[in-house]
Write a structure and sequence with these properties.
- This protein is mainly beta and 377 residues long.
- It has a domain at 187-377.
- The protein has helices spanning 11-20, 170-173, and strands at residues 5-8, 28-31, 38-40, 45-46, 58-62, 67-69, 80-85, 94-98, 101-103, 110-123, 126-145, 148-160, 177-182, 185-187, 197-202, 207-215, 220-225, 233-243, 248-254, 257-266, 273-280, 290-296, 304-307, 310-312, 327-333, 349-351, 354-359, 363-367, 371-372, 375-376.
- The radius of gyration is 23 Å and the shape is elongated.
């Protein structure tokens, strides 16, 4: 055991080691259980909100597959198994969690919540039987790899603005930035709960989801909501598998910027919208947000899209141009010949600005207008 590493074998030792890490040189706490594969906390495990050497502190908690859980009665509604809420650290602390099973025992609690940190890494973790699985607020750079949420009744993964502001201007300083999910999965509860969302991503400056999966009962697969005019849309999904009877696969509230969804694999009939981009916040003097949808090999018969700034599918192109719209572009999407048909869109309203490019026997382009060499076609 190195001088910077502490090995713990029970809950009380874990709590003591985490607390002491605020002022000593501990950089790694390893859970090594001998008699059982789980430990039960008697209260929320608080990661020190402020570290003695905040500029360089990196704390690793290595679980070795152990389960951290609460008693049958939990700690109370809206509490957490593990929590870090800092006021003055100002994102200086780096936190790493590896190979831990979090289990809220069916209580209305959060498994893990982290506020105001930077360079966060969460690997090979499971978040089970909870209200919220993983909550990240005001995080600057985080990577979540190979993690699974099971049976979360409200949110599987949640990213957003922190209510705790270390500096006076929360409008400018409270957003999260540069969040990446890789190879993560959400399995919804056995019975659908009102408002249940697999990924809820709010006012995140830059976020990317790679190879994610959605199963079980959820209302919305992924929601990306911009409500803060200082945050611009910068959102990517690279491969999402929807194996769940969701009402909406992806819901977008966009502003200036873009969203790109590349690879949508729908393995069951979808109950509503593949993508809902019917709301947006558009700051003054901003450009229209662009949405790129690529590589969707299957669209079930009832699957629809929903847009804002739409026009009736049979409207002429010379109607007055709307000023509050999302620009849609499709590339290699199933049933491309009919992508602008009224049956594919909520209430028959298709995007005013639109472009679709796909292969049948040869490349086909469908759009409302096109200019080549400065000449309209």
């Amino acid at each position: 055991m190195s001088a910077n590493k502490v090995i713990v074998a029970n809950a009380s030792a874990l709590v003591a080691a985490v607390s002491a890490a605020a002022t000593n040189d501990t950089t790694c706490i390893e859970i090594a259980l001998t008699s059982d594969d789980s430990l039960t906390l008697t209260n929320t495990l608080v990661i020190p909100p402020d570290f003695f050497n905040t500029a360089s502190k990196r704390l690793i908690i290595e679980g070795n597959g152990a389960t951290i859980k609460c008693p049958a009665g939990g700690f109370g509604i809206n509490t957490a198994l593990i929590s870090r809420k800092s006021v003055s650290d100002n994102k200086a602390c780096s936190l790493i969690f590896r190979n831990i099973n979090f289990d809220c025992s069916g209580n209305q609690m959060t498994c893990l919540e982290l506020y105001n940190a930077s360079n966060v890494i969460i690997e090979d973790c499971r978040f089970n039987n909870c209200k919220r699985g993983l909550v990240l607020k005001r995080i600057d750079t985080a990577t979540i790899d190979n993690c699974v949420v099971n049976n979360a009744t409200e949110y599987g993964f949640y990213c957003g603005i922190s209510e705790i502001f270390p500096l006076p201007d929360p409008t400018l300083l409270s957003k999260s930035n540069n969040i990446v999910f890789n190879n993560c999965k959400v399995v919804g509860p056995s019975q659908l709960q009102s408002g249940c969302v697999a990924w809820s991503l709010n006012d995140v400056q830059t976020i990317e989801l790679n190879n994610i999966q959605l199963y079980g009962n959820v209302l919305t697969g992924v929601e990306y909501i911009i409500s803060n005019t200082t945050v611009f849309s910068n959102f990517k999904i690279n491969n999402i598998t929807i194996g769940s009877l969701v009402s909406t696969g992806v819901k977008l509230v966009m502003n200036s910027g873009f969203a790109q969804i590349d690879g949508v694999y729908i393995t069951v009939p979808i109950g509503g919208f593949v993508i809902d981009a019917s709301s947006l916040i558009l700051p003054a003097n901003s450009t229209l947000p662009h949405l790129y949808v690529r590589n969707t090999p299957v669209l079930p018969a009832g699957a629809k899209f929903k847009t804002t700034g739409g026009v009736a599918a049979n409207s002429p192109c010379d109607i007055p141009q709307p000023s509050n719209v999302v620009v849609w572009e499709f590339y290699e999407v199933a049933d491309g010949d009919n992508i602008w048909s009224a049956a594919r869109w909520d209430l028959g309203f298709i995007p005013y600005y639109r472009y679709a490019e796909f292969f049948s026997e040869s490349k086909t382009i469908l759009t409302n207008s096109m200019t080549v060499n400065s000449k309209p076609l």
